[in-house]
Amino acid sequence: MPATRYVAVVGPGAADEQQRWLAEEVGAALAEAGAVVVTGGLGGVMEAACRGAKSRRGRTLGLLPGDDRTAANGWVDIAVATGLGELRNGLVVRCSDVVIAVGGGHGTLSEIALALKAGTPVVGLGGWDIEGMVQAADPREAVARAMRHSSSAGS
What whole-number distance in Å separates Cα of residue 45 and Cα of residue 17? Predict the structure, then answer.
């Protein structure tokens, strides 16, 4: 049996409607592919990706910036209160086999940079286009590319 893939879905906490829709579709497709959806555990893109995963009976992991596990969005299965603030972005990246970046602000940019520096593949969807990233036109393509890239990642 192949190893379970952990796929981070990163993007703005203050996401617009389009970004939330993209993230929810990504989360659903990741769950269908058998991946664990990893996020920062809060709102916006993070919440939408978790909601999408749970709509397909997927599993979700939220790595929270604060000390309170109850701050996680209602779609997180396992909430880890890191107490690290934005530094938790590094944990989101390092515990994932691949990153899908939906939209993006500065926090998303930091996660992309950390992933690329660590050699973790990054798939972009409607946001930053940085050398080393792979771009996708829609959520299904983003997940297909992510699963293809994660097939040789850690277990």
Answer: 10
